[in-house]
Specification:
This is DUF3626 domain-containing protein. With 369 residues, this protein is of the alpha+beta class. 43% of the residues lie in helices and 15% in strands.
Amino acid sequence: MSLAVAESDALTPAQRSAISNIRQRAQDLRADAVMTISHILNMSNVEPSTADAVRAAIHDHAHVVIHFHPDRPVGSRVVARALLEDGVYRNQFETGISNGLVSTALDGPRDSWEKSLFSGAYHDGTGLRAAERPKYGALDLTCHPDGPAPRFGSCYLVLKPEVSRRSTFTFGGSQADPKFRGTIDEFDAILSAILEESFTRDFMLGVSDIRPGPAMCLLRESLTTPRQFRTDDASHNLDHMVEAQVHGDICLDRDVEALIADGSFADGDTGRILKAIGERFGFPVRFNRGFQLPVESIPPDFRGPCMPSLAARVTTTRVDARAIGTAAQGLFDNRDQWRDRGTYEEILQELKLLWHVLVKYGEPLSTLP
């Protein structure tokens, strides 16, 4: 029995129903999507067979990536320690934390989004366990070193292509109720949206100045197994992705191909834990060039006027992922010391926004003196 079949058999009825519902939605969109793909390729002087090559590359080699911040508190531990000790990646309904919107209440925003997205598959009244709900990531189609959705974490797990078989996808974040949805074997709706963006805006998933022909070449050439970086240059991409919803467990020893970490963690306790994760569960841990930005270079007009003062509170020199994480731990351990800036939730949100600033404007660690 293949790994993909074995994992599929392990899905619960709710999880299988969620995938089936998205696949049906994608099938409903297929005819229009195929027409759009054909039209754009024709207008762009691209051979029609290119679409088949890209479909095959995505189907066989596309990796789902799970971004996370390794040093964020979760209960009495930090995320990296929890991964090392538990050997599984958990969703926000289990952990109570998120790198996006934290919403774990029934009838809350995330619960409502999932009810709409999966046509009620997780809301059939059979007593759903929190662990059954999907885990969120992004499909990595461009292979930048900072990952396909760096706003959601400075480190990321690269999942094996087999996990894509039990994942569903949306063009953009699911909180926006996106029209274009798919599975790895029904991907035309999302591919048509990717192509239309490159045709009308010269843009694709954070890559600028790219037309449909080069876009299709990039997609085909980027998708390899084992995964390789296409370039050493970070994407600085905050807002453009193919969101992935992984159904079923994410077991580190079975499902992870590699762990990519921000270079600021290479030395220190967090780096040692990350390396131990790879050693325990049998995959490589690689450190990218990361991001850093001098405190005086933090802009006041991207994520709000409070960002420069927050940066100065976090560090006296340069902001990086490690400095922001240290601040988040300090906030968790001693909220009174931060009370002048607002509530715990407000300051935690500010720290998330400071990370966005770093992703947008940060320079690689190795290039700053």
